[in-house]
Amino acid sequence: MANRFARILLAIVLTLTVLPTHSRSQDHKAASTGSPKQADDKVILNTNLVSLTVSVTDPYGRFVTGLNQDHFEVFDEKVKQQVSLFTDDDAPISLGILYDVSGSMKERVARSVKALKRFIETSHDDDDFFLIGFNDRAKLVQDFTTSGDQVISHLMFVQPKGSTALYDAAYLAVEKVAQGRHKKKALLIISDGQDNNSRYTYKELRNRVKEADVQIYAIGITDPASDSLVGYGRSILEEITRMTGGRAFFPNAYNEPELIEICTRIALELRHQYSLGFYPSDTSSIGKWHKLQVKINPPKGLGRLSVNYKDGYQSFKQ
Predict the structure, then answer these.
(1) What are phi and psi of 116, to 5 degrees?
(2) Which range scores top for mean pLDDT: 231-235, 261-265, 302-306?
(3) What is the CA radius of gyration of the chain?
């Protein structure tokens, strides 16, 4: 009996000796914390993707489709970048319409609304729109909707009056379009005059637009007899659209076919664009404005092509 008891005691001692110094529950706790075994296990995600939308046209102004990634070169401050993202899909967009309802638009609403209707009819079926009306102040008239009819209905019986708070309207629209459900975003400004009643300055608007990823198009409705878009007002629309990769057009207020043709062209351009993206090779600068350049190496037979895109971006804050 004594010998048997001694053997049992020895077995217990041996079992306790080979147990690990920490329990299984401790192993589970360590695993659940996700603590890396080695420094090499860390994963760093680079989210500083610069994206830009590019329109390509031939010498006759026709949109060029069917190009691939190899046909594009992107330069950041004259340094060639590796294109990491490329698509030519007809993607839906979130789009804000900024419509001037100041007093000077009184005789021009009917024609411009017809042109705007054509714009909406030519757009992607899944686009969503919002409408900002502006005169003395800017106001969100219609929140995001996929119904173009809802947008147009707000303008059918509008009574233009007051002055022009264009900068306020554009600033509000840049903030609003960021809430859109589509990655691609754009604004369309329809106005016949330069700003004369905004709280925001053009410098403040320009700085905000630089930070935003949005294309801006403008239709500056002109009157040969009394053009309020000469000089400064015209140059503002040209600059703010150019820096975002959009365009500014200045049709005759009384030429309805021209208005309709321009609206149709803008809608088609938004549907026939290339999306490119790259991770900047220079990540040392903070808050610096980077100049961009896109070059096309077209297939033989296409001739000289024109490209339109935003002219730069604000470097990322670390």
Answers:
(1) -65, -35
(2) 261-265
(3) 29
In angstroms, rounded to a whole number, what is the distance separating the alpha carbons of residues 81 and 116?
38
Which residues lie below 8 Å from residue 219, measured CB to CB, with a gap of 6+? 112, 115, 188, 189, 190, 191, 248, 249, 250, 251, 259, 262, 263, 266
Closest CA to 209 of 241, 247, 183: 241
In the chain the domains, ranked by start, together with CATH numbers, are 50-88+274-314 (no CATH), 93-271 (3.40.50.410)
Q: What is the pLDDT of residue 147?
A: 96
Location of structure tokens 């979130």: 94
Q: Which phi and psi (to 5°) does residue 157 adopt?
A: -120, 25
Class of residue 305 by CB neighbours under 10 A (exposed 0-12, middle 13-18, buried 19+): middle
Helices 256-271 and 109-122: crossing angle in degrees, nearest 10, is 30
Q: How far apart are CA 237 and CA 303, in angstroms?
A: 30
Contact (Cβ atoms closer than 8 angstroms) between residue 180 and residue 128: yes
Residues 6+ apart with CB under 8 A from 170: 98, 187, 189, 205, 209, 216, 240
3-state secondary structure of 55: strand
Query: Is residue 200 within 8 Å of 166, Cβ to Cβ?
Result: no
What's the pLDDT band for 193 if we cut at 50, 70, 90?
Answer: confident
Distance, in Å, from the CA atom of 112 to the CA atom of 155, rounded to the nearest integer, reads: 10
DSSP summary character for residue 106: T
Give the chain's length. Answer: 318
In the β-sheet with 50-57, what is the strand arrangement from edge to edge? 83-87, 274-278, 50-57, 306-308
pTM for the structure as a whole: 0.83
- What are the φ/ψ torsions at residue 184 (nearest 5 degrees)? -80, 135
Q: Describe the chain by its helix, strand, coil percentages, rounded to 5.
A: 35, 25, 40
Task: Estimate the crossing angle of helix 166-177 against helix 202-211, to 10 degrees.
Answer: 20
